[in-house]
Amino acid sequence: MHYSPYLRAAASQLASRATPQKATGLKHGAAILAVDNHSPVSRVAVYVRAGSRYEPDHLPGISHYIRACAGLTTQDSSIFGITRHMEKAGASFRVSSDREFIVYNVDCLRDKLGYVLGFIDDTLHRPEFRSWELVDVVQPRLKEELGRYKKNQGLIANEAMHKAAYRGGLAHSVFAPEHQADKIKKSDVFEYFEKNFVLDRMSFVGLGVDEAEFKETIDDKFRLNPSEYQGVKGDTRYVGGEARIQANFPVTKVNFVVQGSPITDLKSLAALEVLSFLIGGNGQTPIKYGSGSQRTLTNIVKSFSSSHQTSVININHSDTGLFGFSVCGPNETLKEATKACVKHVKQILNGVSENDLKNAKSAAKARLLIESEDQEAVFNAMGRRHATGITGMSPLDLVEKLHLKDVQSVASNLLKSKPTLVAVGNPRYVPYVDELD
User: Are strands 241-246 and 420-425 parallel, antiparallel or unpaired?
Assistant: First the structure.
């Protein structure tokens, strides 16, 4: 299930003790964002604009490979040394990546932050990528992750959906092709690393940190250098399409989406948040539609089989997005359930009323407030907003200030967009796109 994470940065200031967010610059020119919630534990994330959309054509999967290199020997520390010193400081270190960013996260006691960040700087700026470590450590990591990926129907559908929907950078998979796991060379890793892990492509975010101390620590610990090379631009355009993947799963999963909104279009994001409630899927507060009946995706698919599951998809990238729904369930009734879901979504988009908007806005604001209690989700959303350069009104204000014409305009654009359909499992039970008009 995919919901827009960027509206959720309503965040830690809501009924909390947090000091207001402070965005500022370093002497190197890089930007940082600091929020002090007076916690004894500090949380820091370094966002590097080096996700899969920026991979050059001759190095598919290199961003996944870089992610798997986290914690390898650097010029100053061995694998054992990094692990030992992190554990000694009571710190946790993890790395994740998506199409936009590779993100380095560390949690530690507040008074150990400077000590721990020194090892993060080593990882980011002085790696050695020793050949035997790439073979003995990275390749097994990659193969293990790819093995888990092949068993995850949702991930397979998500990757296929992006490949079918886009041309350009966003069509690149977050996961390396299996045949690439043992073909990427040390020189390839250094090439991508040196061109993308540079000052202009990094953002620093801290929670539970003093802004002045955080800035001073990064200035001192991170020896950053600007680079004239800006890497691959990752240009992308939405085209729509279809992918039907035969796979050995007990049920079939269908993703149906159209072009959504980028995370920089805050008003459209707020409108999509409201529309997702009107459409209705698992995990959402039901919104009464029409004269008292609760017409939601969940209720519609359950009328075909109690085993069907559905959710709203709302994925937002820096320059575009995807919006629609996912349905998964028994093959025998999936075709009719998918058609009914498409019909329901189109009815909602064609007929948003003032009363619908009022109810959906209330539900959206309630969920934003509830989710602001999840500190990790808030931190991740806050970091991505900062790394993408988003500023402006709070999510609650954006939802509150929505007018009916704003929502109707976004709904109209969704209806005009060419659809993308992906089926993973037994696609013979899934209608084709031209059967869903």
Answer: parallel
Q: How many CA atoms lie within 13 A of 392 on its CB side?
A: 18
Number of other CB atoms surrounding residue 353 within 10 Å? 13
In whole angstroms, what is the distance from residue 158 CA to residue 175 CA?
11
Beta bridge partners of 94: 105
Residues of the chain with pLDDT under 70: 1-30, 223-231, 281-295
How many CB atoms neighbour CB 388 within 10 A? Answer: 20
Instruction: For 3-30, write each residue's pLDDT tens digit.
Output: 454 444 444 343 334 444 555 555 555 6
Alpha helices in 90-237 (DSSP H): 113-125, 131-133, 139-150, 153-165, 186-196, 211-221
SS3 419: coil
Output phi, psi for 328, to 5 deg.
-140, 135
Instruction: Find out whether 36 and 61 touch, Cβ atoms under 8 Å.
Output: no
Distance between CA atoms of 43 and 33, rounded to whole angstroms?
A: 12
Helix, strand, coil tally for the chain in percent (to 5): 45, 20, 35
* φ/ψ of residue 325, rounded to 5: -150, 165
In whole angstroms, how large is the CA radius of gyration of the chain? Answer: 23
Residues in the chain: 437
* pTM of this structure: 0.89
> DSSP character for 186?
H
Which structural domains are found in the chain, ordered by start? 24-221 (3.30.830.10), 238-435 (3.30.830.10)
The tally of CA atoms less than 13 A away on the side-chain side of residue 193 is 20
CB 318 within 8 A of CB 6: no
pLDDT at 399: 87
Query: Which residues of 233-350 form beta strands (DSSP E)?
Result: 236-238, 241-246, 252-259, 309-316, 321-329
Neighbours of 413 (CB within 10 A): 17
Q: At 50, is the secondary structure helix, strand, or coil?
A: coil
